[in-house]
Amino acid sequence: MIVLSKVRREYRKFFRANAGKKIYNFTIQRIMQKYFLGLKSKLPSMSPIDKTWPARPYSFLDGVHAELRRIFHLWRCKKYRSQFTEEKKAVYEEKLEASELFKDKKALYPSSVRQPFKGDYLEISKNPKYQKLSSAVDEKILLADVVNKINRANGKGSSRLFLLTKKNVVLADQKTGQLKANVPLTDLASVSTSTQTDGFFALKLKEGSASAVKGDFLLSSDHLIEIITKLHRIGSMAADREKLNIDISDEFLVQFKQDKVCVKFIQGSPKNGNSVSCKRKNNRLLEVSVPASS
Fold first, then answer.
1. Model pTM score
2. What are the residues whose beta carbons fall under 8 Å from the beta carbon of 185, sequence distance 6 or more?
3. Each residue's pLDDT tens digit, 261-272
């Protein structure tokens, strides 16, 4: 007993010195255990756009709480993306590219966000009227739509079929399907469009290219965002081609054969209604009146 008492007296100071640390560590472990179990039961939904996150119970957990939120969101996004088919993934990638090209730059963009990119709006291959045209295009058609080709003489539009493949832009008569132009994408220098809600865009051709003989193309489309996004995406993915330049401005030049014409976009007055109009002001100016966005 004497020996035991001596041992207790000798080591008591060590037990007292470590007791506080042990109690502290035990308390922290219990707090963390309770925190993680509570967080597990309160996690938000698996939707990547769900911005909710449980409140942290203690201020000393600020850093951990923020990091766990970040990790959970990355994991949730990865799980969401893993459900995509290759086709659906390509659609979302196109939408992301459209956002990078047009968000906060063109007023038409917000209205296009909810619209799915369909690509072939005409079902060219199934339409007997366009059978001859379809057989003349020996590549997969990425986009088929009806556009208006703007006449520099009066600013009026003529309906054209607009076909896009990985190598060419094809314009054809809407009624007969007769080929009007076949432009290799390698001949395309840039695309210009305005900052406003209109669907006008210019395909600008490289000087000296075979396609540039008749001049640039000034077109308008209800699917401008999709058309330009697809054109840009094709150029970005082609190893043998420069990235297509997209110019967004309310005034740009278009080469019509030997003459350069300025295309200027203005805000239309209420008396002009809600439609976009294009008028020739003189030999060097086409003016496009766009309704003010509400």
1. 0.76
2. 166, 167, 168, 169, 231, 234, 235, 238, 241
3. 999 999 877 666
